[in-house]
Amino acid sequence: MTDLHTVPGYKALLAARCTSSITLWLDFTLIFSLLSYHWHADGITIGAASALYGLPGLVLGPFLGSLADRRNPVVMLAISYLARGVTSVLLIVAPDLQIFILLVLIKGVANLGAMPAEQVLIRSMLDKDQLVSNASVMTAVDQLTKICAPLAAAGVTGLYRPAAGLGLSAAMAMVGILCLPALKRVVPSQVQRAGSERPKWHYGPLLRLARENRRFRQALVCVLWLTAILGLYDPQLSLFLREEGLPAAAFGMIVSCTAGGALAGALSFRTLHRRYGRHLPSGGLVVFGLTVLLPGGLAAIGIAIPLPFWFALWIANGCAYGLTAMSFGVTLQQESPVEVIGTVSAAARSAQLGALVAGPLLGAAIGKLLGIPLMFVLSGGLAVMAGSFMLWGVRSGKDLVVGQSSSAEYP
Question: Which domains does the chain carry?
Answer without folding.
Answer: 4-183 (1.20.1250.20), 204-396 (1.20.1250.20)
